[in-house]
């Protein structure tokens, strides 16, 4: 793989019908840059969850608003930034999702953010209500232990 | 794009739903409709066979959460079977094995209903 940073930018209309297309693009890029099938499926699902949240919550199913996807790849990681210009969200007030609590109460929805955090190495939220909301997700090619081993070599 | 399909069959007093393809926020309403129509007919003993399911997101899992309480209140259950490891991982990450009967195969689930 090239040591240069690669950047892909996409603007996709906010309809659930496009989730399949988004997954195809993300998984194709992740596979092409060398992630194993297991990591490809994790990245694909995390981005699906982020975009589904934008469609359902940020734009309240108001169709055909833009979802901006920026994919950046460097020698050690793949980063995906999902940006919307919807109603925004105060992430500082976001309750920590307790999965046991969700299951006990059989609450529908709200599990997407928990999944994103479980599937990716880093997840960061930034919201400027009325302007834009961003979710940045990162997956490293090598995990921590593997990085140490790679350095020793 | 038609990427999800639900088919139904009866085995005694148990209904088996076979789900096929991609279950996400776009296709989840199709499964919701399928389960709702079973409930409307008073069918509360349901097996969902995942053999042909390729992909699931939290929207798909949410469908099961939306119906399970009502179904159990009517002395029924939803038993989930034949998941491939990729699908099972999503259920496992969200702690579903604590709440749902997730079984190796369809027949095993039907037998458990009848035991």
Secondary-structure-derived class of chain B: alpha/beta
Question: What is the string of SSEs of chain A from the N terminus onward?
Answer: EHHEEHHEEH
Strand sequence of the main sheet of chain B, in spatial order? 1-2-3-4-5
- Work out the count of structural domains of chain B: 1
Given the C-alpha coordinates, what overall shape of chain B results? globular
Helix content of chain B: 40-55%
Give the overall form of chain A: globular
Please write the string of helix (H) and strand (E) elements of chain B: EEHEHEHEH
CATH class of chain A: Alpha Beta
Total strand count of chain B, please? Answer: 5
Low-confidence regions of chain A: none
Largest sheet of chain B: 5 strands, mixed
CATH classification, class level of chain B: Alpha Beta
Q: What's the assembly state of these chains?
A: heterodimer
Name the strands of the widest sheet of chain A in spatial order: 1-2-3-5-4
Q: Total number of helical segments of chain B?
A: 4
Describe the structure.
The complex is a heterodimer of chains A (153) and B (115). Chain A has 153 residues and is an alpha+beta fold. Chain A has a single domain, classed as Histidine kinase-like ATPase, C-terminal domain (Heat Shock Protein 90, 2-Layer Sandwich), CATH 3.30.565.10. In chain A, 39% of the residues lie in helices and 26% in strands. Chain A has five helices and five strands, in the order βααββααββα. A five-stranded antiparallel sheet of chain A has the order 1-2-3-5-4, with helices on one face. In chain A, strand 2 and strand 3 (77-84) form a beta hairpin. In chain A, helix 1 (19-32) packs antiparallel against helix 2 and helix 2 runs antiparallel to helix 4 (112-119). The radius of gyration of chain A is 16 Å and the shape is globular. With 115 residues, chain B is an alpha/beta fold. Chain B has one domain (4-109): STAS domain (Transcription Regulator spoIIAA, 2-Layer Sandwich). Chain B is built from four helices and five strands. Chain B has helices at 28-40, 58-73, 85-93, 106-114, and strands spanning 4-11, 14-23, 45-56, 77-81, 101-103. The longest helix of chain B has 16 residues, at 58-73. The N and C termini of chain B lie far apart (41 Å). Chains A and B meet through helix 1, helix 2, helix 3 and helix 4 of A and helix 2 and helix 3 of B.
């Amino acid at each position: 793989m090239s040591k240069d940073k690669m950047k892909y930018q996409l603007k996709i209309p906010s309809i659930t019908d496009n989730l399949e297309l988004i997954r195809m693009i993300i998984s194709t890029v992740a596979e092409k840059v060398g992630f194993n099938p297991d990591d490809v499926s994790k990245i694909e699902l995390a981005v699906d969850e982020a975009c589904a949240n934008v469609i359902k919550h940020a734009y309240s199913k108001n169709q055909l608003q833009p979802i901006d996807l920026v994919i950046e790849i460097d020698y050690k990681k793949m980063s995906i930034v999902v940006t919307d210009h919807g109603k925004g969200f105060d992430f500082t007030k976001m309750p920590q999702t307790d999965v046991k609590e969700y299951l006990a109460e059989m609450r529908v929805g709200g599990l997407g953010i928990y999944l994103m955090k479980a599937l990716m190495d880093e997840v960061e939220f930034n919201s400027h209500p009325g302007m834009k909301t961003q979710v940045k997700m990162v997956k490293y090619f090598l995990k921590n232990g593997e990085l140490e081993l790679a350095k020793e070599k | 794009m038609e990427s999800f399909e639900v088919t139904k069959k009866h085995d005694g007093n148990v209904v088996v739903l076979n789900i096929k393809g991609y279950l996400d926020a776009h296709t989840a309403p199709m499964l919701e409709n399928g389960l709702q129509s079973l409930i409307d007919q008073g069918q509360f003993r349901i097996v969902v066979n995942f053999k042909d399911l390729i992909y699931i997101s939290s929207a798909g899992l949410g469908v099961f959460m939306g119906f399970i309480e009502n179904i159990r209140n009517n002395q029924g259950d939803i038993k989930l079977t034949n998941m491939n490891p990729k699908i099972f991982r999503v259920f496992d990450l969200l702690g579903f094995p604590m709440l749902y009967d997730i079984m190796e195969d369809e027949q095993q689930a039907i037998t458990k209903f009848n035991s």
